[in-house]
Amino acid sequence: MEKRWTQDNLTSLQSNILAEERNHPGATGEFSWILSAISLATKAIGNKVRCARIQDVIGDVGEKNIQGEVQQKLDVIANEIILRCLGDRENIGILASEENENPFLLRSRAEGGKYAVLFDPLDGSSNIDSSVGVGTIFSVLRLQDGGSREQAMLQPGTEQVAAGYVLYGSSTVLVLTTGNGVDMFVLDQSIGSFVLVSKKLTIPHGNKTYSINEAYTINFSDGVQQYLEWAHQNEYSSRYIGSMVADVHRILLKGGVFLYPPTTINPDGKLRLMYEANPMAMIIEQAGGMAVAEGVRILEIKPEGLHQRTSVVLGSSDQVEAVLAHYS
Ligand code: FDP
Quick one: CA dihedral 290, 36, 123, 88, positive or negative? Predict the structure, then answer.
């Protein structure tokens, strides 16, 4: 090969997906069309996040979402951006947001609506005011024939065809799985593209770090309390950002375990199965880790409602097993 004059990373999200599709003879390219909309939306959201206090995007809007949580302006802005960017992609039949009670039914299967995209537009939004990392989480399902369209979405996480998140942190990072390992991209602001920085990420083992809101300890089950006591006696360290995307991203890269167990206020757990737990569980499993809820594999939970909550224990398999060893 001739001498190269540039060392720039030029493998974009788009070119990586197209290359992967070439390995699947039946691929139609439709899927890359969805991911390009997600890429566009998250660049626009990231731009708004980075304009906090410069533009009027901070503070709450004085209304509660379907989860009963006070909506932040950036929650509403991020939701709107995703709905606008994904809404006109012809192969998306349904868009479902953690922020909206009902999903948006865009196209029937007969009209070409093959996929449902579920998303948490801005996770960790209670951290926005203090410039702590927040993120967007997404999950893609193939819509099944028959039944109501909402019913068609109530599939276990094992059926996800893709899942990912974008972390708006010190850099903007996109982590994606299409069921064939986990790839990581970083937004190169200078060219406006997510470029591939790691392929087939594997979650490290042996990191004695847990991530949990320990202030709720007296509300946790005996098993979780015993685990925490055991961890205190065994030289564990604690890291809790309070933004699931940021906490999970750290664990994906460095290992450890993230827990959000049932509490008195949230007896079923706080996190949403379809919008948060399932996509994160798919990523963690694809990277060689484990994701469970009260001893059950999260991806096998049969959802009963779109906004269903679940408890979560996920991370390196050795660290998840150390937690499970304390459940009776
Ligand atoms: P937030 O309420 O700030 O949006 O599910 C939302 C979430 O953040 C997660 O990102 C985070 O892990 C968790 O809730 C934090 O909950 P606690 O404040 O109860 O620890």
Answer: negative
124 Cβ inside 6 Å of ligand 1 = yes
Cα distances (angstroms) measured from residue 200 to each of 25, 37, 75, 107, 285 = 21, 23, 31, 34, 12
| Three-state secondary structure string covering 18-29 | HHHHHCCCCCCC
The token pair that represents 28 in the structure block: 């139609």
Is residue 123 within 6 Å of ligand 1 at its C-beta? yes
Asked whether the predicted pLDDT for residue 17 surpasses 90, the reply is no
DSSP state of 89: -
Cα separation of 112 and 194, whole Å?
Answer: 28
Q: Where are the alpha helices (DSSP H) in 203-295?
A: 222-233, 244-254, 278-286
CB 227 within 8 A of CB 219: no
What dihedral angle (degrees, nearest 10) is formed by the CA atoms of 65, 69, 70, 71?
-50
Q: Is 243 in the pocket of ligand 1 (CB under 6 A)?
A: yes
213 CB near ligand 1 (under 6 Å): yes
Distance 163 CA to ligand 1 centre (A): 19
Beta carbon of 244 within 6 Å of any ligand 1 atom: yes
Residue 22 pLDDT level (bands cut at 50, 70, 90): confident
Q: Which residue of 67, 244, 249, 265 sits with most ligand 1 atoms within 8 Å of its CB, as the best mutation to test the pocket?
A: 244
The region of weakest confidence among 15-19, 117-121, 213-217, 241-245 is: 15-19
Say how many Å lie between the CA of residue 125 and the centre of ligand 1. Answer: 8
Other residues' Cβ atoms within 10 Å of the Cβ of residue 111: 10
Q: What is the pLDDT of residue 328?
A: 65
Contacts of 74 (CB under 8 A, 6+ apart): 48, 49, 52, 57, 58, 122, 125, 128, 134
Close Cβ partners of 319 (under 8 Å, ≥ 6 residues apart)? 205, 207, 208, 209, 210, 255, 256, 257
